[in-house]
Amino acid sequence: YLQDVILPRILDDATLASLNTIIHTNNAAVISLLKDDACFIQDLFSRMRSPNISMESKRELVLFLHEFCTLSKSLPLVQQLRLFRDLSGEGVFEIVSDVLQSQDRKIVSAGTDIVILFLNQDPNLLRSYIVQQEGNSLLGLLVKGMVTDFGEQMHCQFLEILRILMDSFTMSGAHRDVIIEIFYERHLDYLVDVIASSCPSRSATRTSPNSAVVGGNTEGHRIKPEILLNVCELLCFCVVHHPYRIKCNFLMNNAIEKILTMTRRSEKFLVVAAVRFMRTIISRNDEHLIRHVVKFNLLKPIIDAFVENGDRYNMLQSGVLELLEHIRKENLKPLVIYVTESFSDQLMKFEHFGSIQAFKLKYQQYLESADMKLSASVPDM
């Protein structure tokens, strides 16, 4: 408070810069003294693992570890990396796994901050731990944390952790296959079911905009719409980063249909998220997924939501029109034929939109081309 509010009113920029340098230098000196103590990390973790530790003492130690890791950014980069490797070797992720199971939101938040600090330093430290048998449970805790309402937007922190952890562009081959396999085998279905069980059936009335009761794996907890949005964002991320693995999952079950139940929610931003999810799938231009969409009539909930929205100009309308534009411009013939022949009556009242007109014209061009080929193949008598 003194540094950010009081001092800027009475000190010039040069003096403030000098004070910041002093603070930074002192932080680095304190962290250096602690990390160079051969017994410091071992003693700290030993106390945190003790079965006799009180909840208050454990809370203070977790917050101390969080501050220690945060202030380590004052060290030179090489020393930061060495320190984080030492912490990893001494079992910091086991400590974090225990912290994430706490009912105390403050120390859970500290635990996620520690994980993010490690991921920003070297994601492979956490990945190396997760691919070990004892580390598998940490990935499960991170997934569960994303659908748990800890408050204060903490589910966004869990989303960011999972994104960095499973970023295919930064994963080495040794980690990539194992982590992706663990996630898809053990956790993807859980996330899909969270969405499906949070959305009303076709015959049910729309749920309250604030929450939905979730059964099954989530044990009747109420899932906030913002959490469902994050789950959908993670699934879109997976479609882009793990196209082959997630395609196998989608083709073997009805996961896409379950995710599209979000179009039945009353919150428009969740309906838009479902449209964005379908747009992400179609953008892969994968013939197997396209056939799957056609076979199981998976664009129906998208078109139904578009029709129900009417002429209201909003993100939902723009999202569906852009989806149809993409299908037309990419010349995805099976989808053009499927949409036109399945939903032409519903879309007729929207023909004042240029996108709908162009889509219909593309379908007619396909028919004319087919007629010309048929005529050319018939011999003259």
Automatic annotation (TrEMBL):
Domain of life from the UniProt record: Eukaryota
Positions of the Serine/threonine-protein phosphatase 4 regulatory subunit 3-like central domain: 1-365
Subcellular localization, as worded in the UniProt entry: Nucleus
Any coiled-coil regions, as ranges: none
Gene Ontology MF: a single term: protein phosphatase activator activity
SUPFAM superfamilies noted in UniProt: ARM repeat
InterPro entries hit by this protein: ARM-like, ARM-type_fold, P4R3-like_central_dom, PP4R3-like
GO cellular component entries: nucleoplasm; protein phosphatase 4 complex
Gene3D superfamilies, per database record: Leucine-rich Repeat Variant
UniProt keyword terms in alphabetical order: Nucleus
Protein name: Serine/threonine-protein phosphatase 4 regulatory subunit 3-like central domain-containing protein
Species whose genome carries this gene: Aegilops tauschii subsp. strangulata
